[in-house]
């Protein structure tokens, strides 16, 4: 699970969200996105990360961009963030609507302004001012799932849809970490959780909660966002790695701590300045794809620690 690399090589590690399908058609999109990002890594860490997540935002298979889950009012509100360790820059958009690529808006915010987070209508206006088209991000599949869920609620029943996916399957927040041989960076994008309150913002734009990057590590999280925010899980991982833990040890410790404190499920992907990768989860599925030096790692699988945590 550890892939120490020499100077000059690069790594892209990407996850498709908690409880996302690991079927071939999903993994193929993730693999293609990771390879696309690797091809841009020599130019710019942030450009590579943006390209990776744009590919997932453009696919209706993932809970971000087009295909995001719907909130209680039947609308799509998305969060996205990008953080670069060496430059100590962080930018995010929160509860943005009608923009297919929130991760691109976050990158523009980072590179063209001194602001850190824009939310709601302000984020949408900023995107439009910078040439992003207005797009309806509601997929037919998610709209149908929302209708079914609302009907269940009206009958006093609990919806059968997955909290993270909005569907009977599929995934939560997507995220990517990268190391280009000299620096670490991370990015995430999400539609949030199904049937959330309008205006609800998760852990993606919460630096140290669901995302973090420094000179030591880069981390992205997926799961119940409120729990990651309240426990500062991504920052906790950075502190553990700084103290000598491997990324794998750190993410497993963090998930066990998260469950102990909040009794929730999650998935975490992390990388350190030696090019070592850590990934773990305690839910149903958690697809992770890793590209090292331009090549996909065969049969890379995150560690499922569900069995070592009492889930009751």
UniProtKB/TrEMBL annotation:
<protein>
    <submittedName>
        <fullName>Isoaspartyl peptidase</fullName>
        <ecNumber>3.4.19.5</ecNumber>
    </submittedName>
</protein>
<dbReference type="GO" id="GO:0008798">
    <property type="term" value="F:beta-aspartyl-peptidase activity"/>
</dbReference>
<keyword id="KW-0378">Hydrolase</keyword>
<dbReference type="GO" id="GO:0016811">
    <property type="term" value="F:hydrolase activity, acting on carbon-nitrogen (but not peptide) bonds, in linear amides"/>
</dbReference>
<feature type="site" description="Cleavage; by autolysis">
    <location>
        <begin position="172"/>
        <end position="173"/>
    </location>
</feature>
<dbReference type="InterPro" id="IPR000246">
    <property type="entry name" value="Peptidase_T2"/>
</dbReference>
<dbReference type="InterPro" id="IPR029055">
    <property type="entry name" value="Ntn_hydrolases_N"/>
</dbReference>
<feature type="binding site">
    <location>
        <begin position="222"/>
        <end position="225"/>
    </location>
    <ligand>
        <name>substrate</name>
    </ligand>
</feature>
<dbReference type="GO" id="GO:0005737">
    <property type="term" value="C:cytoplasm"/>
</dbReference>
<feature type="active site" description="Nucleophile">
    <location>
        <position position="173"/>
    </location>
</feature>
<feature type="binding site">
    <location>
        <begin position="200"/>
        <end position="203"/>
    </location>
    <ligand>
        <name>substrate</name>
    </ligand>
</feature>
<dbReference type="Pfam" id="PF01112">
    <property type="entry name" value="Asparaginase_2"/>
</dbReference>
